[in-house]
Amino acid sequence: MNEALQYFFMSWVDPKLVFLAGAGTFAGIYIGAIPGLSVTMAVSILISFTFKWHVNEALVLIAGIYLGGVYGGSRSAILLNIPGAPAAIATGLDGYPLAKRGEAGTAIGLTTVMSVIGGFVGIFALAVGAPAVSSFALHFGPRDYLMLSIWGILLVGSLSGGSLAKGIFAGALGVLIASVGLDPLTAEKRFTFGSVQLTAGISYIAAMIGFFGVSEILAQMHELHIKAVKQDVSKIIPSWAMVRKYLPLSLRTSAIGVGVGALPGAGGDIAALMAYDHARRTVKNPSRPFGEGAYEGIVAPESANNAAVGGAYVPMLTLGIPGDAVTAVIIGALYIHGLKPGPMLMIETPHLFWFTVGSLVLANIFLLIFGLTGIKIFAKVVETPKPILLPLILVLSAVGAYAINNSIVDVYWMLGFGVFGYFLKIYGYPVGPVILGMILGPLMDRSYRQAMISAQENPITFASEFFTSPLSAVILAALTFTIVSQTRWWKRWRGQTV
Length: 498
Prior knowledge:
Number of strands: 2
Largest sheet: 2 strands, antiparallel
Order of helices and strands: HHHHHHHHHEEHHHHHHHHHHHHHH
Distance between the termini: 51 Å
Structural class: mainly alpha
């Protein structure tokens, strides 16, 4: 226990780590607050600069960017009715009406405090629940990891894209891209077409920067003519009476955020929408009607989406399965730093787990500080013309892609995937499952082969083991339900019975 506390407070006593936690949180808030600049893009770009850093420095910066980015989207949602991140969509429903009433400052202050409360609830759940989940995950076999990987891609595809078929296609595309290079078991060349560069595979970091960064830049170019609205922000810090009044709702919706965040493929945007729906159904006497500036309408989603951060860390660290698109990027960073997220992480490197928990707590404290200050500066950042902002982002993306291997080839891949991702978005295909497929592809490949070897290369034995093992049967049932629930027959049946 003493050793756990030692690593928990390690980031608190090192001035460099404290600075990185603050800098990451600050950058995450302002990047996440700019419409179109998602926290996923911020993490994917900034992580590329940490490859040569010590692992502790990278982890503390990641924690700050993640927490700050999830919160930052609420600011533009309140001031401009343009969510800076998908997790802030529900916040804008009542946040923007509050701004039109001249209460933007109070709304921002209240969302900051409730986001911090939700963040602490999520971190507590991570500290308490992750060791138990890790111990349970030690019972997972290769076939279980195979199904978990497939399930994670299906969940992201069904929740982020609206169409399960398009989500499956995008995930399969990612798995196909991940298979380029040398076979991990036989060293045979796969899909290299005689190219020497392709024998090393395709960098998923470059792909992530392209899909989430360059494609978004291309999409934002259609909106260069839209001018930002200027806002007058005055009072920020909410009263203690207001905080105490909405604390029970914040704790309830934080629990929702933890639960949804821990589901592979869900994340803060789903948690926020579910929390908002919970508030509408349970709050009998809101401060105003929902949709017209109810404070409950900003407390619920902001508590949930920040609590989902701690929840998303649970499957990432204990199972090696990302909780959302951001943790998918973080998993890639952990692998690059020599770590292997999964059940053995808690056994082989327990100090890094407690260091991560301590870094999240430190970042959450910085979130409170920066969230209640610098509002006027933020207003200027939001008003930056896109013709100036977008080229700067493109330059940062190129530098980040080049820094991966000091290779111009990665920059070409980034640009190519950016253009490809732009067309995917135009036709309604989610890019999140593509990245998940690239990251989970090697795990699926390895798990499938290990499961087949254990079944002595017998397909019948391989298939029967999914039903003879209780754990495999439960995961298979969840995977099957995910597919069935997206069919028109299921939706028609639900429509007839509801």
